[in-house]
Write a structure and sequence with these properties.
218 residues, alpha+beta, 4-stranded mixed sheet, two-stranded antiparallel sheet, globular, Thioredoxin-like_sf, DsbA family oxidoreductase
Length: 218
């Protein structure tokens, strides 16, 4: 059974949702037969490359709220992250993530997508490392087990894996996904948002049972 997850590195609920999904997957009896595929989704695709802004400034502008309200929003997310055992900081940057997704597709091709995704999330949300700094991004790629020269070549070539990112985003639109995280289980069930772990376990069981019925009907 395949689970596809559309997400963005700068999305806090994607960060939290991934942890909750993994907890739900751990409670699923057939977890060893589940393939997890991470797909690209950009929250801010129109922001120019290299144009970064503090996340609190982004929130005040996007939602047209006072800074104090933006801080309260972040505090609620930080609490949810802590409940999931995750680090979280509000003094991070927000920016265009197209290069990050292109690098994740390289990592997928090299069998290191999960490792790079975890490192990117940790750097962005829990550590004082900006994923929008090219040197940091190359360092994270190397930590994930990618060849530094190959990773640098991808970042230097704006066309590298661009089609793969766009294909993921088109598919998300075709499936009706307008926000992330968005989980698609065996192309049978969809789950939106960073749901509690037990919801993911239940959805996995439903998708598994449906697949077994389908297999039995053949």
């Amino acid at each position: 059974m395949r689970v596809e997850i559309w997400s963005d590195i700068v999305c806090p609920w994607c960060y939290i949702g991934k942890a909750r999904f993994e907890e739900g997957l751990a409670a699923f009896d057939h977890r060893d037969r589940v393939e997890v595929v991470h797909r690209s989704f950009e929250l801010d695709p129109d922001r120019p490359k290299g144009d970064t802004v503090p996340v609190l400034d982004m929130l005040t502008a996007k939602y047209r709220v006072p800074r104090e309200q933006a801080q309260a929003m972040e505090a609620r997310v930080a609490e949810a992250a802590a409940d999931a055992g995750l680090g979280y900081r509000a003094d991070r940057d927000h920016g265009n993530t197209f290069d990050l997704h292109r690098l994740l597709h390289l990592a997928k091709a090299r069998g290191r997508q999960g490792e790079l995704l975890d490192l990117l999330y940790a750097a962005n949300f829990a550590e004082e490392r900006s994923v929008f700094d090219p040197a940091t991004l190359l360092s994270l790629a190397a930590e994930a087990g990618l060849d530094p020269d190959e990773a640098r070549a991808v970042l230097d070539d704006d066309s590298a894996y661009a089609d793969a990112v766009r294909a993921d985003e088109r598919e998300a639109a075709e499936l009706g996904a307008t926000a992330v995280p968005f989980f698609v289980l065996d192309r049978r069930f969809g789950v939106s948002g960073g749901q509690p772990a037990e919801i993911f376990t239940q959805a996995l069981r439903q998708a598994w049972e449906a697949s077994q019925v389908s297999e039995g009907a053949k």
